[in-house]
Amino acid sequence: MYKYIFYFSLFIYIFSLVWGVLFTQEDFVQGNSFRIIYLHVPASFLSQSIYAAMAISSVIYLIWRVKLSAYLILAMAPIGALVTFLALFSGSVWGIPTWGTWWQWDARITSTLILFIMYLGLISLHNSFSNHEKADKLLSWLVIVGFVNIPIIKKSVDWWSTLHQSASITLTDKPTIDPSMLYPLIGSIIGFFGIVICLIIISSKVQIFKREKTKSWIKDYV
Amino acid sequence: MFDFPFKSIEEALYMNGHGIYVWSVVLVVTFCLIYAFAYYKIKLKKFKKKFNEPN
Prior knowledge:
The complex is a heterodimer. Chain A has helices at about 1-20, 35-65, 65-100, 105-130, 130-145, 150-160, 180-210, 215-220. Chain A is mainly alpha-helical. Chain A has one domain (about 1-170, about 180-220): Four Helix Bundle (Hemerythrin (Met), subunit A) (Up-down Bundle), CATH 1.20.120. In chain A, helix 2 crosses helix 5 (about 130-145) and helix 4 runs antiparallel to helix 6 (about 150-160). Chain A is globular. Chain A starts with a helix and ends with a helix. Chain B is about 75% helix and about 0% strand. The radius of gyration of chain B is 20 Å and the shape is rod-shaped.
């Protein structure tokens, strides 16, 4: 089933990327470097969404002890780290022609770097435990505590004076971006979202195989 | 809405000096996604193979 989601998302992503990178007009202020938006925004959006999904899974695990939630947290963490790395990398590259620097210790960039370090920390912490159940429990608590960083990332451009521009698309206000640039951006976000969902599904399967390898049902399943 | 704003393919690659930034990000994102898929797919295949092996 997820293969259909994957091919559909891949088509939308490639179509939107080609549309955005090659078939939109140059930005009046930023020139052609603005085209990085079609890679940077989906990655940034997903880096926070994955963490939010991990926090929801953690709550489910701590309240109802659903094992699958713990496996999902572990499956999502490396993908979250990868996507956050892509957000940081694309943002840094975009910063060179736009701001004249690839790095600035401003609120948005620093809080995103903290998110990246948090992902790496959670992965290594879980790997350092030999007792999986204990590790799952501790990981869930840490994910919930770390969730405080997500609203900070989101609101950093409003709370502090930063180099980073404020959000071009919000749920409440009209987009501040031209429709010719907006449609491929929405397409690239949807496509990237679908691709990452499929990646999480495969990663979850790996986690289930890893943790349930001694159970008899898994052999019947395979 | 689908206007090709460049005069040639070379210009689309160069993008007035910004091509190096745009295309490098495209390459890195593409590489990372392909790598991640390949990594998990190979891992999954290995698990399935292991389970299918007779004891």
